[in-house]
Amino acid sequence: MSFITDKQTIDDLNIFAKSGGDSIYHIFNKTFTQGGATLLEEMFRSPLSEHRAINERVAILRYFQESKTVFPLQGNRFEEAERYLSNTDPRSRLSNQGFSMADFKTATQSVTALMEILQGLKSFLSGILNDVDTNAYHKEAIAALALLNSKELEPLFLDHGKGKISSGKIVEYDNILRFLHRALLENILGYVYHLDVFISIAGVATERGYIFPKALQRDENRLWVKGLYHPLLSNAIPNTLEMNPDGNIVFLTGANMAGKSTFMKSLGISMYLAHLGFPVAAAEMEFSVCDGMYTTINLPDNLTMGASHFYAEVLRVKKVAVELGAGKNLFVIFDELFRGTNVKDAYEGTISIMEAFAGKPHSLFVISTHIMEAGEVLQKKCSNMIFRYLPTRMEQGKPVYTYTLTEGITDDRHGMIIINNERVLELINHKKEIKQSPENLLADKQTIEDLNLLGKFKQQSVYGLFNKLNTRGGEKVLEGMFARPLNTPGEINERSSLFAFFQQQRVIFPVIRSQIESMEDYLSGGAGAALLVVASGVLAKKFKQVLFHNAELLQLQAGQSVTIEVLQAFRDFFRELSAKEGIAVYQKDLDMVQEILQDSRLQGILNSSEGQPSLMQLIRNDYLIRHAMINHMEALLKLIYELDVFVGIAAVAADQGFVYAKALPADQMRLDMEGFRHPGLSKGVTNDLHLTRDCNVLFLTGANMAGKSTLMKSMGIAVYLAHMGFPVAAKRMEFSVKDGIFSSINVSDNLDMGYSHFYAEVLRTKTVAKAVSESLDLYVLFDELFKGTNVKDAYDATLAVIKAFAANRNSFFVVSTHIIEVGEALGKACDNLQFSFLPTVMKDGMPTYPYTLSDGITSDRQGMIIIENEKIVEIIKAKQYVS
Length: 883
What we know:
- The chain is an alpha/beta fold.
- It folds into four domains: 31-205, MutS, DNA mismatch repair protein, Chain A, domain 3; 214-412, P-loop containing nucleotide triphosphate hydrolases (Rossmann fold), CATH 3.40.50; 472-656, MutS, DNA mismatch repair protein, Chain A, domain 3; 659-838, P-loop containing nucleotide triphosphate hydrolases (Rossmann fold).
- It has 33 helices and 26 strands.
- Strands 6-7-8-4-9-12 form a six-stranded mixed beta sheet, sandwiched between helices. A six-stranded mixed beta sheet has the order 20-21-22-17-23-26, sandwiched between helices. A four-stranded mixed beta sheet has the order 1-5-2-3.
- Helix 5 crosses helix 6 and helix 20 (489-504) packs across helix 27 (630-656).
């Protein structure tokens, strides 16, 4: 039975680095061969679920650690050998009838490398068997030696070490290794790769001081780990934890930054590595083998599935519930269960789900929460739940974190202290009198990712929506426009008018992608050479064609022919375009194009009759196009790429029913959006939004799944596209141009920097605060501000930060929250807030969502209804444990 897990767990634990940074795999990948590295990755993706198999692997690794074995073969010879063996083309087989010297030289080097590998492996394995005949690797060594001693390989070992190998022998061995007994060689290399992995992991265990865990039978349901720490952190604080059937659920609490997420990741990594039979970062560890493990630490929402953050959490719990209901024995981690909903629903959901988990004594659960009040109820209801917290002590008014597990439930609340220590409110309240305006609209990486703006191949990206272009150069121009949004009304409106002109005229790009690519390839050979040099080059190609059937001249002729076709097509296209109504907006570019295409030097070429040109015509054309006028051709291509973008974006606008926003000066402080929606949701519900200087802060509430995140993303994307001069998914839009846009929608923790989720939120708020302190005028979107902390801190922090932001009347702020009580306090403190909510309508006991903005603050709380509708508790209880 295979061990079950999923991508979310792999990502949560950073088993494989998502962006080239350090990972757990990276720690252990000290292999000498590429095959070993590949095998190690396969092992990492396939944890074991049988205690005997785990302990057998542990015994092998411990043997190599204790024996201090060094990899006996030269790793650099394997790449050559692997490349050689991968060539199974029968046409490359050497023959006594004859062969090329290049093929023979390659085969000689590769055959020699393989012979050295085989002989070295045989000597090493023989030494192991002679050393101790009961070591853990004994069985594998015997099996590998049996393959090496096979009759088929005898000739190679007989000739090894006898000096230079004859050409006849090379032919014979090439046939043996690559064709007759290739499968045998691959099996032997498999043992080599396993040996490489075993020795490498044993070395890592010694170098880092890791220990090997002991796997217990599945039904014992125990975990004992002493001195546990995170393998990617230096100077990490170790912790100890024991779990058993009488205490198989850990209710974990602690203040922000106390170390909950880090501890849970440390525990999850150790359990994952233990199921691989690998060493772990701990002093001692025993564990019962599980059928699988699931973690939920950095869980994003999923707009394409219509899933809010809370619903994503519900679906995640349901996925675990299905496996538990099927009788699976799991190790489960949930970090801050149901943090994506309001306090009441989080409280009820946490109690309901954890009580259901308590009925599964054959699985292990570690669940952290900021809903400390739930712990008091669960203490009375669940006798098999253990309560641990990570304490904080105050020293000179600052929180100090011990990172050491302590029995009980925390009462630490230091959220506002952290905010004040980061000077967030101070930065917001102390603006510089003179600002330094940026060249383009500012938008950082978090905002780009939140709004899913970039990425040619990224699913549902906004760039992908608009990339309906015909040229690679056009795609680069489009990328540049996305990377550098504009921030002056004149430039924005001018670009919008260009797109609108091409949309109104229904212009079609006159050539296809392959034609432009052929022209680009042809022009790439130009270098501004003199006529005599060009002529000699063409004549040389003609000479090689006649004598050697060389294709260079034909390629030159084809490239030139397509280039002339493209030039003729654009000459006719621009001639027709020049007569269109409204051409004035494109007149500057049109004049540059026509100046090139009407150059007297080109007319003979463009007006020539169809047919194959003579050799002299070919030379003259090549000289003019690729050399004398190469700068003109490059300028023309640039204009063609820009045209490609204008035509492509106009076509998307027409197809999607998008409109062009009107850009206004920043000091007008106006955002007027009518009928806007998310551009990636063709059937998305539209909304209206109107913000001004006197009402520049939107306080947004709504139940889970009501559409808050989608609405904020829709607005953010529209604002970003409008600053590019691009069409937006709306019926009408007018907006004041600003210096930047910042969003905080899917903010994750950052273990490498030591950030908890709450601290990541604080630092995100600080980033915006710094921009405000620079007197920049902004669009700011905060989804569920401070959801990564306890209720009191979330209330205090949300109130303080929104009040501070609201004092800035030159920026627009949209803030959503589940702490609806904050709205009442803000209504009394600020006169420039607009209160809107996305309602929930109950129909036959089921929540439905109109996704339409309404005035006021929501009173909807349907979190428990969603949990009940998904039948999670019933699924968990559906089946009894199956041994």
